[in-house]
Amino acid sequence: MASNLETHLGYWLRFVSSHVSHAFSLKLQAYDVTVAEWVVLRELFDGDGDGASPSALADRLGMTRGAISKLADRLIAKDLIGRTVSTEDRRQQTLALTAAGRKLVPALSALADRNDAEFFGHLPPSERAALEKTLRNIVRRHDLKTIPTE
Predict the structure, then answer these.
(1) Would the pLDDT of 90 be above 80?
(2) 54 Cβ contact list (under 8 Å, min separation 6)
(3) Which of 1, 24, 82, 84 could serve as 94's disulfide partner, Cβ 3.0–4.6 Å?
(4) pLDDT per residue over 8-29, tens digit each?
(5) Over the chain, what is the mean pLDDT?
(6) Which residue blocks in 30-124 are alpha helix, DSSP H?
(7) Region class of 51: left (phi > 0), else alpha (psi between -120 and 50), else beta
(8) Torsions phi, psi for 145 (to 5 deg)
(9) What is the predicted pLDDT for the residue at 91?
(10) What are the angstrom distances between the C-alpha of 23 and each of 26, 30, 81, 89?
């Protein structure tokens, strides 16, 4: 006998996750930003303003350097980040938010907050805390590093 899909917690996690991510993706479309681009913008926003190398960004986000390069190219084309190349070693690059990117991140963060509230705002604080604790426990136990971008 084969177990039913609905008996698996993974099914329910994916079911909710897909809907949460899709709703957020739709909200970001109004700003011409993808979820993956949002993740890069948000990561650069927390920095010291000096930016980050593409390899450091890739390591922190659990992405490949190629993926970061493609995302950076798209964000540069949108004038949300800039790329500085070292005059001493042209292989060394730094990615940093532009003024437009720095201004946009708080607006996108508010969208993320609103999306979270739409899906999880009905939960009592104790249930929300328990859910978060459980999910963080799974992340730690399996040493999950790759940040979800889709």
Answers:
(1) no
(2) 65, 68, 69, 72, 93, 95
(3) 84
(4) 999 999 999 999 999 999 999 9
(5) 92
(6) 35-45, 54-61, 65-77, 99-120
(7) left
(8) -120, -35
(9) 75
(10) 5, 12, 25, 42
